[in-house]
Design a protein that fits this description.
This protein is mostly beta strands and about 350 residues long. It is about 10% helix and about 50% strand. It contains 1 helix and 30 strands. Strands 1-30-27-26 form a 4-stranded antiparallel beta sheet, with no helix packed on it. It has a 4-stranded antiparallel beta sheet with strand order 2-3-4-5, with no helix packed on it. The chain has a 4-stranded antiparallel beta sheet with strand order 6-7-8-9, with no helix packed on it. Strand 11 (about 140-145) and strand 12 (about 150-155) form a beta hairpin.
């Protein structure tokens, strides 16, 4: 009887150790997303780029590209339209309830209005100087264009296509997001802050300091937990912030980030880094965040869009060639190789 009991104890111990090992292996497997480059969609026309906007329901991606917006099918990658004469376009906002799209045209200080079904341009609105990021706030039913050189926000009523407010921001604005409950958040790149706007009266009501992040650019929000994910290209850092009070909750070393996307279903934040990768951070709960992995992309892939239905990511990129320094410009930007512009699609 004693021998049998000892044998059973050893068997139990063995199974216990095996269970721990399998659990560890399973946990290790879950630390990887399985995401990788699926396809590259060529856009052969010339011009630089900035933001992309994905319409998951309509299976479209809107790509800012120099003096036009290219529209691709997310299902096939095929070109399905162009919005012309958007000089120095940075971003694209969609107001689907009114069947309108808006582009921020940095070089001529305007926003182009276009029909979402036909892609026909139906108007243009003068805004501040060098409009950059742009988005539509469902709560207030307004379009916000953030103007880089005039350091303010132009608030557009899409029902009338008039600017109804201009909000001084006290710094160079970058990406803006909404909590869907009456607050707008926008990065201030030159002051290392998140500026908070009351969407009801268009007033700045708070300025949240980003303690260990410099030159914030990319921004995303989890509206359920009220957490902001702030990509800071100046020191390659992602900062997680409580949108209710500005408390800095976590920070992660990433890369030369310009864009951030958040998947609300998977609770994953993605930063697009010009170094040639995407950093992935998992939101375990409202106060716990863990680094998952870096996914290889390409150098120059600095901005990002997400399809929240397929969970695919889309990043503009191009092949670049070095430019020789001159007396007037010791650190010139590299030039894009003609015909090399494309969209990288990331998925499983």
């Amino acid at each position: 009887m004693k021998i049998i009991i000892m044998l059973n104890s050893n068997i139990i111990k063995a199974f216990t150790l095996l269970g721990i090992a399998l659990t560890s292996l399973n946990a290790s497997a879950q630390t990887k997303t399985g995401l990788h480059i699926l396809k590259k969609h060529s856009i052969t026309s010339s011009g630089g780029w900035d933001y992309v906007t994905v319409d998951a329901a309509e299976k479209k991606i809107y790509v800012s590209h120099g003096t036009q917006v290219n529209i691709l099918s997310t299902a096939t990658g095929d070109s399905i339209g162009v919005i012309p004469n958007t000089n120095g376009v940075h971003g694209i906002a969609l107001v689907k309830g009114l069947n309108k799209g808006y582009t921020s045209n940095g070089r001529d200080n305007s926003c182009t209005i276009f029909d979402l079904k036909t892609n026909v341009v139906v108007g243009k609105i003068a805004v501040g100087t060098n409009p950059d990021a742009i988005f539509y706030d469902e709560f207030s039913k307004k379009v916000y264009a953030f103007n880089g050189r005039s350091s303010d926000a132009s608030v557009i009523d899409p029902a009338t296509d008039k600017v109804v407010a201009t909000i001084p921001l006290g710094g160079k604005p970058e990406t803006g997001v909404s909590d869907g409950k009456g607050k707008i958040f926008v990065n201030s790149e030159t002051t290392n802050e998140v500026v908070v706007i009351n969407a009801n009266n268009y007033k700045v009501i708070a300025r949240y300091k980003i303690n260990e992040g410099h030159e914030p650019s990319g921004l995303a929000i989890d509206k359920v937990t009220n957490r902001l994910f702030i990509g800071c290209g100046g020191n390659a850092m992602l900062v997680v912030m409580d949108a209710a009070n500005g408390k800095n909750l976590a920070k992660f070393k990433i890369g030369d980030c310009d864009g951030v996307a958040f998947d609300p279903a998977l609770k994953l934040a993605y930063t697009s880094n010009g170094d040639g990768n995407i950093s992935v951070i998992k939101e375990v709960n409202a106060n716990k965040f863990v680094f998952i992995e870096n996914i290889p992309t390409e150098k120059s892939a600095r901005t990002i869009g997400i399809d929240v239905l397929t969970h695919h990511l889309f990043l503009p990129a191009a092949q670049m060639e070095a430019t020789l320094p001159t007396a007037a410009n010791a650190n010139p930007r590299p030039h894009m190789i003609a015909g090399s512009f494309h969209i990288i699609e990331i998925g499983k």
